[in-house]
Amino acid sequence: MYKKLLPLFFCVAVSLQVVGQDPQFSQFYSLPLYLNPGFAGTTPEYRMVMNYRNQWIGLPQSYTTYAFSFDYNMKNLNSGFGLLATTDKAGSADLRSTNIGFLYSYKIHLGDSWVVSPGIIFGYSVRNIDYNKIILGDQLEFGDGNSPITNDPSINNYQNTTYFDFGSGILVYNEKFWGGFSLYHMNEPNNSLLEAENKLPMKMSIHAGVKIPLYKGPQKRNNISSIAPSFIYKKQGQFDQLDLGVHFAYNPVMIGFWYRGIPIEQNVSDRVNQDAVAFLFGLKFDQFDVGYSYDMTVSSLGADIGGAHEISLIYQLAMHKAKKPKRREKFIPCPTF
Prior knowledge:
This protein is mostly beta strands. It has helices spanning 6-18, 32-35, 137-140, and strands spanning 46-55, 63-74, 79-90, 95-106, 108-110, 114-128, 161-173, 177-184, 203-210, 212-213, 226-236, 239-250, 253-266, 272-284, 288-297, 308-317. The chain has a domain at 6-201 and 285-292 and 300-329. The relative contact order is 0.17.
């Protein structure tokens, strides 16, 4: 039964890419360079992040995404440098997109409380497909879909493609608040696997959050609980999306709840624009964070396709013993949840 449905799954995977939607992460706070290049270098020194997402687990071929990022805060230049790599695989024909980007940000200190961090990203991408796993109509005539060859000339139209990409963003933050705006795929590159033009639409994102301590009394406490409401609004091509959520933290435990969708409008299928609700759990230590989240689908796709599992690992390291900074060079950390 599944073999007969392979062309359908392939078409679904291709259509997801053709409309030009980037992979998304529920734990966006654990992959900040993917959200805005202005986040590069917003930690004391080094930061390494790894993410894994498995989406629509109810299908025979789920949609999987891996991400890795590394960034460094070069204090003497007020600059941040970063590397971001992502790869995702979709459909029974293993449609894969692999991207690697280099990021730079510059820190502008506004007094002792605020930092403005504009950033840029330059990337290179590769898209390919496993041609041996494509099953076309004439192969299905054999009944089991196992014909080793096809006479359909359309198989010759598929080809691997590569392209350059760039984006920019700006981030404003202090020790409790962060907000920013970013644009990715500003050159709208052609990412078609066919001999045609299919521009990857520019992705725009507005995002902000605030960390609110739940204790402000006179006594000094080593561990203070906090809540952190935040949001992201994204638009790419004809699709837009709003993520609203809140985190509660009492070290080392963090829990969160998110809703993804815009219920006051309809999507391109004339249905209420809602996608999923996400539940998050994490542990945060001095240098190491781990997080897990599960997305429960609430869209018209139904519960049969399953939700999404996501895992994140963050490691921060300061190689050099910090010296007491001059007042004008005071390091202001970007709040983390």
